[in-house]
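Memo to structure team: turn this sequence into structure tokens by end of day. - J.P.
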Amino acid sequence: MVRAGSANVTAGPTLAVVAREAGVSVPTASKVVNGREDVAPETRRRVTEALDRLGYVRRPRFDMARTPSLVDLVVQSLESTWSGAVLHGVEAAAYEAGLEVVVSAGPNGTGRPERAWLDRLTARGSSGVLFNLAELSPAQYAWLDHHRIPYVLIDPAHEPPAGVVSVGAANWQGGVNATEHLLGLGHRRIAVIAGRRRTVWGGARVAGYRSALASAGLRHRAEYVRHAGSDEAAARRCTHELLDLPEPPTAVFVCSDRMALGVYGALAERGLRVPHDMSVVGFDDLPQARWATPALTTVRQPLGEMAATALRLLVRMMHGERPEGTRTELSTRLVARASTAAPPGERPTA
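Reply from structure team:
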């Protein structure tokens, strides 16, 4: 199976040619290709270099004539609630499909699979891979295509290469809904705290925010747009900067629940209350949103459904089908809780 949009891989050199290039026997070269451990490190190195140099295409361990039984899920971290929601969705869909799932985290905290991990992927006979990582490198995309391994990206941070299949959320619409909710409460001075610049989801959510303001006849103010790098400490700093403006906002749309907790912290440091002094809307609807005090109004991103959809697409690709499109988006939904209210001075008095 070649991923949608890529060309068929042409026949490459035989294993005998690789063995001759590396100065080993064909059985030894075969052991390296199949991930066997009973090969000396120096011999493995020579064979691996010959494989890469000659462009040898390892035969996938799965056979489309039989039913695939094993897939890999690679996540950014095994400890986050985000990854837990993704794993739950994949597990449920895998159970329905009769598949086993091997779960691992991005090696060394980099969020990128290393070459050794990729080699182990072929050795254990996985039929496909789901990636829930910040990004893959061009070399890793090429490796996956070269070895004809079907894969799907779950919520990639950056625009993947043409033809790569991915599943994400309707980020632009989520930004619109968050901002319209605040506009409906009477807010006109609305800020946005986005994550890292040039990410797919961050750009779309900020674009939705700006679109909602424009539809309401409001010009977005550059000083109200901040980027926090997706962590609480940076969001806390951005909040202090917003509060120090000559005309601070009365509400803020924060592009992740995690960052919204940083906003809560900064407001508490100033002796301000949510939503009495500032309304806050998050994005994701992780468990922390419900546990926060007050409970966080947020845009629900359907993480479990996204993961399950990605698994179903992967199964189709493993059976030789081509998805209708390369990008699938699932709807978001605003969940109103206690962190939003009318602006100060516009609330009815008792």
